Amino acid sequence: MVSEQTVHGTILYGPELEPIQGYIAIKDGIITEVAEERTRSENIIAPCFVNAHTHIGDSVVKDPPLGKCADYYVERDLSSLVQPPHGLKHRVLESTGHDELVEGMRRSITDMLRTGTCAFADFREGGLDGVLALQEALQDSEVTSRILARPRDIHTENQELRQEVERILLDADGLGMSGASDMDMRILRTVEQLTKSNQKTFAIHAGENGRDDIDKALSLDPDLLIHLTQADHTDLKEVADMDIPVVVCPRSNFITGVGMAPVREMLKAGIDVAVGTDNVMLNSVNMFSEMELLSKVFGLEDRQVFIMCTLMGAAVLGLGNIGPIMEGNRAKVMILNGNSSNLSGIKNPVSSIVRRGRPDDILSVIL
């Protein structure tokens, strides 16, 4: 059956998110027409968010107490919280049953959709079992995913490791590794070569808590870098010269105490920068919160922030079916209520969505 609909309002059109009044016509999920005309609709039609870096497996341990409590103590530092193999996240994942893990991830995926996210990339722990659990959680969901897995045994370079990686890559979109200082470089080179030979994505955390692993990560010629919180000018020049995109996670970096990524310098260097919410254990999957932080604390230009959180996320993840609102592209849009108590009276829809937009401003998401 052919599906058709027309949506009126202020459209954030094209790659520059130019606000125009009019309507978009959608047929079988494709934008067939964008027309500019006067409209009485207060709706704002915008591209959906792309959450370019998540760990949704730890949805089962949200907001652990950071400091002393009655039963235990959780250090407020990166290694105690998330570093493999003994960080809090990994201890919890090891003790979490399959059904509980799947249900936790399913709820986070549902929350993404409700908060305007149409696609995400997950660094999936747990080897093949972790990949299959996420695929189960994604069943019946319209949210697009990129699963970047990692093998269980990352401490021994042998035939078993190679076989595990090859098997994982049959189901995953690539590998998403922890920092290069967390394991032997011989192992990382092995998994990188296997990933590339299977024509899959090789991504890695780098420069999150220090600069010591950045050169190591770059020597692996990754397709995608995560964080680069501690990168300096020399690092950024090399990343730009190698044409490697970067995903930054502002709220996550604040709560783990590693500081602020040099996003402005990244952009000035010509690096493609996207945004992710990182660990669900520490942050919700709400991309509105990331935008507000990037605008108000990092002082970035609002249009650039919106692009980083939407169109650039799709670009760096290779999601060719997600793009700007234009004729011929797939309709991956959110409809916001421009007459909500929060947005009523705004003059610049891009700036206002970035600075004050909230999930409850969303009327619907079209995927």
UniProtKB/TrEMBL annotation:
GO molecular function: hydrolase activity, acting on carbon-nitrogen (but not peptide) bonds
One Pfam match: Amidohydro_1
Bilayer-crossing regions: 305-326
Keywords: Hydrolase, Membrane, Transmembrane, Transmembrane helix
Domain of life: Archaea
UniProt domain Amidohydrolase-related: residue ranges: 44-345
Cited NCBIfam families: PRK07213.1 (NF005552)
The protein, known as: Amidohydrolase family protein
Organism: Methanolobus zinderi
